[in-house]
Fold this sequence. Notes:
The structure is a single chain. Helix content is 48%, strand content 17%. It is of the alpha/beta class. It has 2 domains: 165 residues, Rossmann fold, CATH 3.40.50.2000; 95 residues, 3-Layer(aba) Sandwich (Rossmann fold), CATH 3.40.50. It has a 7-stranded parallel beta sheet with strand order 3-2-1-4-5-6-7, with helices on both faces. The two termini are 30 Å apart.
Amino acid sequence: MRVATVVGNRPQFVKASVVSRRLRERATEILIHTGQHYDDDLSQVFFDELDLPAPDHRLELGTGSNTQQTARMLVALEPLLDDLAPDVVLVYGDTNSTLAGALCAAQQGFPIAHVEAGMRSFDHRMPEELNRVLTDDCSDLLFCSTQTAIRNLEREHARGERHLVGDVMADLALATLPIAAQRSDALDRFDLEPGSYLLVTAHRAGTVDDPERLEALVELLGALPAPALFPVHPRTRTKLEAAGRIDWLAASGLKLTAPLGYLDMIRLTASARAVLTDSGG
């Protein structure tokens, strides 16, 4: 069996690192990286730390609006999938890469398997919600993390086969925790004591693209009652710099850093007093 796996961003690299190992024991996998996340801090570090096989095809499609990214991916994926002629196209999660992989496969008549199917926020203003709903509608195999996801698909009368398979992100986090404790020096590097600090992430468009919401976030972070570490996503940094607030945050005592690798984030998350995030992953 030939499986064409389409990935493009950090959570997909994490999930694929779990699935690809087992998948390659039983099938031939062709890994396609769309380049949705192309910065080394958001891409290559995850391949290195999680021992994810190098992509067989890198599309390097880069930045742009959701529409622009998805359109470029469709154009690039069509001849590639046509040439590969896979038995199934495997996609993860709810990104532009997910939707492009599923839509292209559906239009070309290739079966689709969707990992993390059935997840819903019920907020159709979120690009991710649109991506996940449309991908589920296209998919033939729906691999669900929870019984709630199964029920969501049942209510929507999804045509694909539904399978409750568990959460690969949680599985990897639990398996990696002792490795992160040995290999990550993040606590020492940022001078943090276990249980004494807050860990912050924020990157979703609904959080950082709207000036009023971004300002509310800045005010909230500046008023946190404990030391806090904030690995700043490139999208968020750009918005904070444009608003003239990045220096104010740094002066407020918040520790700002570039995005971190998986092992560092697992170590920091496990040792934090609390985590403040807008991310489901």
